[in-house]
């Protein structure tokens, strides 16, 4: 879950994770190594894929002198070197037109359903880790990976033979009780640990993480969990009850 934050472009997804729309500047428009069009915004509310969290989707609204408004889809957001790239749903003509708009103000709008789901499920995968430590009495190494997708979030560990279905069920019950009683979640900068080093904190627990999280456990709602053991890996998969269909 630890990741390097090397971008120079300010990321409002850290300082204002609930901001779903903002005015920003279109810095430049370019093609990547695979000829996919992207743009760079300053500042940006779009979280770049990393730490298991998906890159944000959404769209940009451009001022247009001929028509009233023009919308361009953002398919995903990725970090590359010191840039945050917003991958665009445009054809060649759109690309050429957009290049001419560099330097202009645009409105950036997030796919808030996706982002908020990521914030909730991401917070839950941290909490289940901490609660599993509490239930088993083991100090559990941080997950090797914590991949999230549109429907669920997982923690992948090297095989943990002391975690079985019953233990996970007990931990999930405790997780749901903990979440429903409401606890503050903070994501804070720790400058003494390095530039933009961030940790997630809830109660007495903390985990290094540069992702986005909800600010109260009540926002997570009810969680369902599944245990999968595959290729010597223990996988804990979580799903939100309102997304369990
Ligand atoms: Zn996190």
Structure description:
- There is one protein chain.
- This protein has 245 residues and is α+β, with helices and mostly antiparallel strands.
- It has four helices and twelve strands.
- Helix 3 packs across helix 4.
- The longest helix is centred in the middle third of the chain and has 25 residues.
- It starts with 11 loop residues before the first helix and ends in a 5-residue tail after the last strand.
- It binds zinc ion.
Arithmetic mean of pLDDT: 91
Helix percentage range: 10-25%
User: Bound small molecules, which ones?
Assistant: zinc ion
Total strands: the figure is 12
Number of helices: 4
The total tally of domains equals: 2
SS-based structural class? alpha+beta
Instruction: Assign the CATH class of the largest domain.
Output: Alpha Beta
Instruction: Note the quaternary state here.
Output: single chain
Measured distance between first and last alpha carbons = 27 Å
Give the overall shape: elongated
Radius of gyration: 20 Å
The CATH architecture assignment of the largest domain turns out to be 2-Layer Sandwich
For the biggest sheet, the summary is:
6 strands, antiparallel, barrel
Describe the secondary structure blueprint for this structure.
Layout: H1 12-15, E1 21-31, E2 37-42, E3 58-63, E4 69-80, E5 83-89, H2 92-99, E6 105-110, H3 112-136, E7 152-158, H4 165-180, E8 185-189, E9 198-202, E10 205-208, E11 223-230, E12 233-240
Antiparallel strand pairs: 1-2, 1-6, 2-5, 3-4, 3-6, 4-5, 7-12, 8-9, 9-10, 11-12
Helix pairs in contact: 3-4
Throw out a few tags for this protein.
alpha+beta; Elongation Factor Tu (Ef-tu), domain 3; Threonyl-tRNA Synthetase, Chain A, domain 2; six-stranded antiparallel beta barrel; three-stranded antiparallel sheet; 4 helices; disordered N terminus; binds zinc ion; aminoacyl-tRNA ligase activity; metal-binding; Thr/Ala-tRNA-synth_IIc_edit; aminoacyl-tRNA deacylase activity; metal ion binding
